Amino acid sequence: MTSDLSRPNVVLICVDQWRADCLGIDGHPVVDTPYLDRLASQGCMFRRAYAATPTCIPARASLYTGLTQRTHGRVGYQDGVAWSYPVTMASAFRDQGYQTHCVGKMHVHPARQRMGFDSIDLHDGYMHFGRDRTVCDPSYIDDYLPWLRQRAGYDADYFDQGTHCNAYTPHPWDKDEMLHPTAWVSTMGADFLRRRDSTQPFFLMLSYHRPHMPLDPPDWAYRQYLDQDLPKPCVGDWVDNVLGDAYAPNECMQPPRKWPAEKIRRARAAYYGQLTFLDHQISRFWELLDEYGHARNTILCFVSDHGDMLGDHHHYAKSVAYESSARVPLFFASPRSNLIPHGVTDGDHVAELRDVMPTLLDAAGLEIPSSVEGRSLMPLMRGEPTTWREYLHGEHTHPVAGIRSMHYIATTNWKYIWHSGTGREQLFHLAEDPTEMCDLAGQEAHATKLAELRDHLVTELSGREEGFVRDGRLVAGREVRPVLSHVMATDS
After folding, report:
1. Is 419 a catalytic residue?
2. Does residue 348 contact residue 48 with C-beta atoms inside 8 Å?
3. pLDDT for 314-339, tens place per residue?
4. Is the pTM of this model over 0.70?
5. Among this protein's residues, is 234 annotated catalytic?
6. Of the listed 56, 102, 234, 301, which one is catalytic?
């Protein structure tokens, strides 16, 4: 297809494990993100956006394909399953005349599967699945590592500090700040601007690995928060009843419940430091984009693949249905043009990662492939009359099935959670209780709402291979797996 340079460029900034509430513009009392706040104010922000499957692999499947988890088949976390989706966000832009490039984390299999991008500069972070040195040196599947070694002057590694890639132990970055993986993504993004094909518009994905662990911000960013009065974790009135004695933490992904308060505070300070450093590096890239003359004709999207519990309700990391894990930051902006309406905040419509692909294509004036199940958010940004989804169905499997294998139904004001291993139900009135402190599932006054949302889940799970529904009722204790059989059949 012949390219049309009047079409806008598109930059998708995806960060890993950034909580939705951790932006200054979203009202966080401590986190300092002035540059992202400014960009968000020059566009439209969606405050009810979710990852339907809140861990890296299944969330990115929705982001890359515009499909629901039932269709793309990844309902939990499992490495080593081939990605074979014929239509992706990158391929849709490529096939309609765009040069497409990705810098940073993709988290697909095999590692150099391009998912429709013309080219990639890959850094997935420390991946146990891919770091088997009996098979190959990690630099073969990581473009950041040889870049780092060349500049550090020795056989450097991003694991030199010894901090586990899923641990909550802070350890400020031990090398020059510009050698940090976060800075590398902005550096390589700028390099793409220098060497891109000037005869085509571009779709560029900057996929930052942080604020995902390890908690290794530059020392200045960490210390910025160490002496502040940081928000304490939210612990609901339901926690002991839901977790009980069956709680089984993993020493890295899910630390012991009774962490000392000071240790939690230091972990939060380091996490917030990651956010501020990211904010500065995203600003760095945007200013370079402006220097190249592209800012006036570029659409920007900022999103995370999922959040981080950070000790809320005695949980850490992700994969659970609670807001700190499943809700994500999402905004679209066009600071130098009216391609995206400015100053709009939407808190009434439930969005999901699968909506990003059709929204960006629509904003660029391109055709949305018929396979896409997400919906463009552009009509909502423009204030046009439109019928939107009544609710969102999300889920995630987990080896500790009785505790952390969950399904959820989220509406504008409510959330229903079903623990598929035990059958436990939870109900939260998010409009009045946004941090999910009070479980209303056992209260007679809310029985009708509970039944209504449960019926939505029955509708979503009817016909699923796990057998979650029988005779119109949810069935607990069914065997779960992270990848549905139709994907495994394709892989084999």
Report:
1. no
2. yes
3. 888 999 999 999 999 999 999 989 99
4. yes
5. no
6. 56
